């Protein structure tokens, strides 16, 4: 393998897409293959069919030693906020509160999910993915002698890549597959993550009203700027006195890519 190259895998419901990425040589992205599979219960199944699709994409010994990064559809993960428990003095206190909050929100036993904390500890957020999904990814990676670099949902990937470039008072957004995922910010910190369906005829006015409603819901000031990843509807980009939408990163040719391919290429090659 040439220095600076790696593998990036996008995992969507029903398809997986494998790409070779290159930091220093063109082309930056090369499609290596895609495979379809019939999704089982994607949140509670054993993900065996997904494992079989990955084995098709990754022939034995062909990529031995390569680094592999995985980006998951946000629908395969769960993100939630945990208020700092009063008098909390240990990480275990926050983790216990996170487990209780997870069960109250989703009704699932926390033991079926692998959780990790994210972002600033002063406004703790947690991300969870099914342990059965992780088991298939790590099994195939080990069998193909790949080095797993990260496994992350798309929103987390975009947030980690771009949050340092957010302007004061701006909210962060991700628009994919007619879903707007908002990163609600206050005083520079992430306060909430909300995934909202977007109607086909959503106008700039719809966006302004939606952000105002979300601000009221979370008790924060409505943003004057939304910095967005993804191909936003054209009507959202028109300058307005009360609100503007700025595109952060729109990969070249995004509209022609499959959902799994867009996942793989999230956040660039970095």
Which key terms come to mind for this protein?
alpha/beta, 270 residues
Brief summary:
By secondary structure, this protein is of the alpha/beta class. It is 26% helix and 32% strand.
**What series of H and E elements makes up the topology?**
EEEHEEHEEHEHEEEHEEH
The total beta strand count reads 13
Please give the count of helices.
Answer: 6
Give start-end ranges of low-pLDDT stretches: none
Q: Helix proportion of residues, in percent?
A: 25-40%
Radius of gyration from the CA trace? Answer: 19 Å
Largest sheet features = 5 strands, mixed
Question: On the 0-100 scale, what is the average pLDDT?
Answer: 86
Percentage of residues in strands: 25-35%
For the termini, the CA-CA separation is 17 Å
Task: Describe it.
By secondary structure, this protein is an alpha/beta fold. It contains six helices and 13 strands. It has helices spanning 48-57, 91-106, 131-143, 154-162, 204-218, 259-264, and strands at 5-11, 15-22, 29-36, 67-72, 78-81, 113-118, 125-130, 147-153, 171-176, 179-186, 189-197, 225-229, 244-249. The strands form three sheets. A five-stranded mixed beta sheet has the order 3-2-1-4-8. Strands 11-10-9-12-13 form a five-stranded mixed beta sheet, with helices on both faces. Strands 5-7-6 form a three-stranded antiparallel beta sheet. Strand 10 and strand 11 (189-197) form a beta hairpin. Helix 1 packs parallel to helix 3. The chain is globular, with a radius of gyration of 19 Å.
């Amino acid at each position: 393998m040439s220095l600076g190259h790696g593998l990036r895998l996008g995992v969507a419901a029903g398809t997986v897409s494998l790409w070779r990425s290159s930091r220093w040589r063109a082309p930056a992205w090369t499609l290596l293959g895609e495979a379809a599979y019939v999704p089982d219960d994607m949140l509670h199944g054993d993900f065996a069919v997904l494992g079989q699709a990955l084995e098709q994409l990754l022939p034995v010994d062909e990529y031995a030693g390569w680094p592999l990064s995985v980006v998951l559809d946000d629908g395969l993960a769960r993100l939630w906020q945990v208020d700092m428990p009063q008098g909390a003095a240990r990480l275990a206190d926050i983790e216990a509160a996170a487990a209780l909050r997870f069960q109250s929100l989703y009704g699932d036993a926390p033991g079926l999910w692998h959780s990790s904390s994210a972002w600033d500890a002063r406004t703790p957020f947690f991300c969870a993915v099914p342990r059965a999904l992780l088991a298939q990814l790590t099994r195939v990676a080990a069998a193909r002698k790949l080095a797993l670099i990260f496994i992350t949902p798309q929103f987390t990937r975009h947030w980690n890549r771009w949050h340092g470039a957010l302007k004061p008072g701006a909210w962060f957004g991700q628009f994919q597959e007619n879903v707007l995922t908002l990163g609600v910010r206050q005083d520079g910190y992430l306060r909430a993550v909300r995934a909202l369906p977007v109607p086909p005829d959503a106008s700039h006015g719809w966006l302004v009203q939606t952000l105002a409603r979300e601000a009221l819901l979370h008790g924060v000031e409505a943003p004057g700027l939304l910095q967005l990843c993804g191909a936003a509807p054209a009507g959202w980009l028109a300058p307005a006195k009360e609100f503007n939408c700025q595109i952060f990163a729109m990969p070249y040719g995004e509209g022609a890519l499959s959902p799994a391919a867009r996942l793989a290429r999230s956040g660039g090659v970095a």
